[in-house]
């Protein structure tokens, strides 16, 4: 018997190395994962090894998590990976059910999978055009309280129809199970702000995507917006999901929403020494969500942090383009008009700036990000970069310039000091020796429209 088992997980091929397991344990893995087995041989995208120090039930439970994490890591930046259940009809229309862990999502999906094809109960991968990637891992079911969850093959847990080959997103649903809900499921549309705030925390590697919030917004726009379904019993979901499944998936090419309007930076990267100037922090994405509010996503130690700004905070963030607090205050008065005489505008702005700086959304130094118009190929030895919006002559970056681009591409948006620190580590040289050259390159790339000061 082969010492490896290949499974498909969110479009990644993961090898489960069973060479150190007894045949019975290997067969248990193969059976649990039978609905995700790859039907042909190929090189894997990732390799995982089951724990050999656990009993079979605990080993299988740990393995499900290990395979999932390996697959998510491999697909990061390529898909919107939503912790959710997915169900498909015979046309390949997919309704995605997002919910927090432990709130009845598995129960609901098992009930609905009697009539609809099971896409996933763990992670649904969605590409920028609305294509859906299945992940038919074993279901994790509590059979004996106090023990590891049993890993039950999909085909043994549900008796639904066969999964269509091509899958397209029809609707995104935020499930809200409540014991005090009525006997009938209730459907209500979600505003873009509420949808993003509900779905972003349930997403994996969101900050690894280019334009993550705006990609989500374009997908929701194309499918009629997200909805919240409030219910008590899974049986009440039948008619609701039937109706949502009839929504037509997007057919026309989708383009991410334009980024939130911001003021252009008033200084170059070399002019960042004035402590009285404020810059926007290295947000991964910025999305206007309506009613004057702004959603900002930034990287954090635990992956990503989403903030929703309202009041004057969005205008302050937009205006922080190397400007002083006095300049920002003047801009606010020009936008909103003069306040009452009793309002100290600069004091109010100063307080908001301090709050935004505490959230790392403003900084006293520039941040650099790759623009939406940039496309590139290559590696740390040589990178070719082009502004696809202008169709201008591609830029060939070699040696240290290629490394600098790679550092910036890995982060998508970085504070200038962090970018310089990465370069110092890569070149093993003092920052004062490379600062001028790095900033000169960044300003050249900025002139070409492939990077910008955030």
UniProtKB/TrEMBL annotation:
Pfam families found in the cross-reference section: PqqD
Domain of life the protein comes from: Bacteria
Protein name: PqqD family peptide modification chaperone
Biological source species: Microbacterium pseudoresistens
């Amino acid at each position: 018997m082969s010492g490896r088992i290949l499974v498909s997980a969110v479009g990644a091929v993961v090898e489960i190395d069973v060479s150190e397991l007894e045949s019975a344990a290997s067969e248990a893995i193969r059976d649990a994962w039978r609905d995700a087995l790859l039907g042909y041989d190929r090189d894997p995208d990732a390799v995982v090894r089951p724990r050999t120090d656990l009993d079979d039930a605990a080993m299988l439970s740990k393995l499900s998590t290990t395979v999932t994490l390996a697959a998510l890591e491999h697909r990061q930046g390529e898909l919107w990976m939503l912790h959710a259940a997915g169900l498909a009809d015979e046309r390949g229309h997919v309704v995605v059910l997002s919910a927090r862990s432990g709130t009845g999502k598995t129960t609901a999906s098992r009930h609905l999978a009697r009539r609809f094809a099971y896409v996933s109960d763990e992670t649904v991968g969605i590409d920028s055009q609305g294509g859906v990637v299945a992940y038919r891992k074993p279901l994790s079911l509590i059979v004996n309280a106090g023990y590891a969850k049993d890993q039950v093959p999909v085909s043994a847990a549900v008796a639904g129809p066969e999964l269509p080959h091509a899958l397209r997103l029809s609707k995104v649903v935020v499930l809200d199970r409540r014991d005090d809900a009525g006997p009938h499921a209730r459907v209500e549309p979600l505003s873009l702000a509420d949808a993003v705030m509900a779905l972003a925390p349930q997403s994996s590697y969101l900050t690894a995507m280019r334009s993550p919030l705006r990609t989500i917004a374009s997908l929701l726009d194309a499918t009629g917006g997200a909805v919240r379904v409030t219910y008590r019993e899974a049986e009440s979901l039948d008619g609701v999901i039937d109706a949502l499944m009839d929504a037509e998936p997007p057919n026309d090419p989708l383009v991410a929403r334009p980024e939130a309007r911001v003021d252009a930076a008033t200084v170059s990267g070399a002019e960042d020494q004035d402590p009285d100037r404020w810059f926007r922090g290295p947000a991964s994405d910025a999305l206007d969500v309506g009613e004057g509010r702004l959603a900002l996503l930034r990287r954090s130690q635990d992956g990503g942090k989403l903030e929703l700004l309202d009041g004057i905070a969005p205008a302050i963030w937009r205006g922080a383009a190397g400007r002083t607090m006095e300049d920002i205050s003047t801009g606010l008065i020009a936008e909103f008009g003069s306040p009452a005489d009793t309002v100290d505008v600069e004091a109010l702005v100063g307080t908001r700036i301090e709050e935004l700086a505490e959230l790392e959304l403003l900084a006293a130094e520039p941040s650099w990000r790759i623009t939406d118009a940039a496309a590139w190929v290559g590696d740390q030895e040589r990178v070719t970069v082009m502004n696809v919006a202008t169709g201008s002559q591609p830029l060939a970056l070699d040696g240290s310039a290629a490394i600098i681009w790679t550092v910036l591409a890995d982060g998508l948006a970085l504070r200038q000091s962090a970018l310089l620190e990465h370069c110092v580590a890569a070149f093993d040289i003092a920052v004062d020796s490379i600062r001028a050259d790095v900033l000169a390159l960044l300003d050249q790339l900025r002139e070409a429209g492939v990077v910008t000061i955030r």
